[in-house]
Design brief:
The chain has 127 residues and is an all-beta fold. 0% of the residues lie in helices and 46% in strands.
Length: 127
């Protein structure tokens, strides 16, 4: 069983930045593709960003965050990050980190292909 814990959420003004962190409790962190999803009030959970097992060039982003958000990982620290810049009020949501047991080499954007989820961290962007 892999436990995933997010941190770094908070309240920020529009145009500001936040950095989310996600730590996974596993000795084989580098085996897990990782992803970030978000869920706004009254909306379904949606894909935000994902990164392959090794990082490298295999990263994916939702169109709504491209150019503003950056996902990265540090396998030595069992941690994946989501750097969020130029935040907008519509970015307000609970942000979830997830780990997938699939062993492919690409990033994964479908939530049903993730097996371990964190409890989420709230991000609120004021206008």
């Amino acid at each position: 069983q892999v436990q995933v814990v997010e941190s770094g959420g908070g309240l920020v003004q529009a145009g500001g930045s936040l950095r989310l962190s996600c730590v996974a409790s596993t000795r084989t962190f580098s085996s897990f593709p990782m992803g970030w999803f978000r869920e706004a009030p009254g909306k379904e959970r949606e894909f935000v960003a994902a990164i392959s097992r090794t990082g490298g060039g295999s990263r994916g982003y939702a169109d709504s965050v491209k150019g503003r958000f950056t996902i990265s990982r540090d396998n030595a620290k069992n941690t994946v990050y989501l750097e969020m810049n130029s935040l907008k009020p519509e970015d307000t949501a609970i942000y979830y980190c997830a780990a997938s047991s699939f062993r492919g080499w690409n990033y994964i954007s479908k939530p049903n292909e993730y097996h371990y989820w964190g409890q989420g961290t709230q991000v609120t962007v004021s206008s």
